[in-house]
Design brief:
This protein is mainly alpha-helical and 233 residues long. It contains ten helices and three strands. A three-stranded mixed beta sheet has the order 2-1-3, with no helix packed on it. A hairpin with a 3-residue loop joins strand 1 and strand 2.
């Protein structure tokens, strides 16, 4: 996959395979190889396949926001190998996410487009943790419940490491409300286990959008493999 921008042409090419047998190892490999970017969603997966795999899950999603891209890819990666085709180069026009200014403008837009406050972008890792858990551990995934749980917990941990680092300072970052900042830090201090992290995601969501956690609880109940859900909730 080549990343393209009109100002510089092709500026990066990613090519990697993910062939691990265990779901958690495939998820780990994707985090390691993606380089922090997630344009794989737009290149490696046929849109008809995406619709057929995820329609039943996403139709019940609380918002169906654009911030779900990481969760969708991790959910797909967890279900099986991702092989590169040596004869195919997909060129992705990265016109909307090329600069830091693009990112700062467009991440909030993925929330406002769905009727949520743009400042939900401040807690994106917490939301990504919840989204990834649901889509990796979804009922429709063909892998066994133990593999779903292991891979989902790993993804949750990765996003929470980002969240803990983000809220590491006593003083709020620019643009943050002081009371919310303190509340998140208090929640993170008692967040130890993977179960704690899921519960913390819901608590943090409600600080920004009261009642959003109830919608996500319903979504989890509807979409997560019951054999997995019984072990975490």
């Amino acid at each position: 996959m080549a990343l393209f921008h009109e100002s510089v042409g092709i500026y990066k090419i990613n090519q990697f395979e993910i062939t691990a047998q265990r779901a958690v190892d495939r998820v780990k490999a994707y985090f390691q190889n993606s380089g922090g970017g997630n344009t794989t969603l737009f290149s490696a997966f046929d849109t008809r396949f995406l619709k057929s795999v995820y329609f039943e899950t996403l139709v019940n999603h609380p918002t169906r926001g654009g911030y779900m891209d990481w969760a969708i890819v991790l959910g797909l990666i967890s279900t099986g190998p991702l092989l590169k085709c040596p004869h195919l180069l997909y060129v992705y026009n990265n016109k909307n996410w090329f600069t830091q200014q693009d990112i700062e403008r467009n991440v909030p837009k993925t929330f406002t487009d769905e009727g949520l406050p743009g400042d939900c972008a401040q807690i994106l890792p917490a939301i990504q943790a919840m989204e990834s858990f649901v889509l990796i551990a979804r009922k429709q995934s063909p892998i066994c419940p133990d593999e779903k749980l292991e891979a989902a917990h790993f993804a949750v941990d990765v996003f929470f490491q980002t969240l803990v680092k983000q809220f590491g300072s006593e003083d709020p970052a620019s643009g943050f409300d002081l009371q919310r900042w303190k509340a998140v830090r208090a929640i993170l201090r008692v967040t130890v286990t993977p179960f704690d992290r899921l519960a913390a995601s819901l608590l943090i969501m409600d600080l920004w959008v009261p009642g959003l956690s109830d919608l996500y609880r319903t979504y989890m109940d509807q979409q997560v493999d019951p054999a997995v859900l019984s072990q975490v909730m």
